[in-house]
Amino acid sequence: MTRYIRFATPIGTLFATALGGVLTGIYFEGGRHAPEISSEWQEDPSSSPLKECAAQLADYFAGKRQCFDLPLAPRGTPFQERVWREIARIPFGETLTYAELARRAGAPGSARAAGAATGRNPLSIVVPCHRVVGTDGALTGYAGGLERKTHLLEIEGVLQPALV
Question: Which residues, in sequence order, are bridge partners of residue 12?
Answer without folding.
Answer: 9
